[in-house]
Write a structure and sequence with these properties.
Length: 73
């Protein structure tokens, strides 16, 4: 699907951090492919857990990716 530079950059950052397999199986990818761009930032924010705990570092990273995704280029 066509993406803005910000959308592309946010998805590359996410995929680099979690791995292509996690992205491939995710609802996030389905939202992107359906061009449901308004839902993508919320989907990014679901990926802030590791070992059953919400991690502040992951929350900050996903927040930055969400902001980047919303940028218009």
């Amino acid at each position: 699907v066509p993406l803005t530079d910000g959308q592309f950059d946010a998805l590359v950052s996410f995929t680099f951090n979690l791995g292509a397999g996690a992205f491939q199986r995710s609802t996030l990818r389905r939202k992107v492919n359906r061009q449901d761009h308004a839902e993508v930032p919320a989907q990014l924010m679901r990926w802030v857990w590791a070992g059953g705990r919400k991690l502040n570092g992951l929350h900050k990273r996903r927040s930055a990716e969400s902001i980047l995704y919303r940028l218009q280029a």
